[in-house]
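Lab notes, practical 5.
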Amino acid sequence: MSPILPVILFLSFGVSLLAQSTQSVVGTWEFVSATTVRSDGTKVEYTTDDLRSTKILNQTHFCVITRNADGSHRHTNEGPFVVEGDLYTETLEYATNPSWIGSDVTYKWRIEGDLWYIDEIGTTAESRGEVWRRVRGARKAVEF
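Output from the prediction step:
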């Protein structure tokens, strides 16, 4: 057997795993909940009583649109994303907050059934964990 064959098989398998990981997050997701722990240790929890949000991912880009309980716009972020193993990184090309543009946000992630758990990794003094539910099929307009 050629010594190159194992390398080719390893690289093919690695590319296949990357494609499967990216494919598993592709789709439409609706916000379920989030927990933020501020630098002073204060814990803030958000649910669908507080926010409505949709995150849409294709093979290369994401877009998330969020509104507050009163229906007002909270934020919109968009840009490319990369999945590498259990890490998911968004690069903000557009953000409601201009100071966020160009920043990367990295999360550890896992999917269990139709739930996607993402936990932000050390980009700020705060930590944030989010839960999203996969949207299957059409849905009606969502009101509070």
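Observations recorded by the TA: Strands lie at 27-37, 43-47, 51-57, 61-68, 73-84, 87-91, 94-95, 104-112, 115-120, 127-134. The two ends are 64 Å apart (CA to CA).
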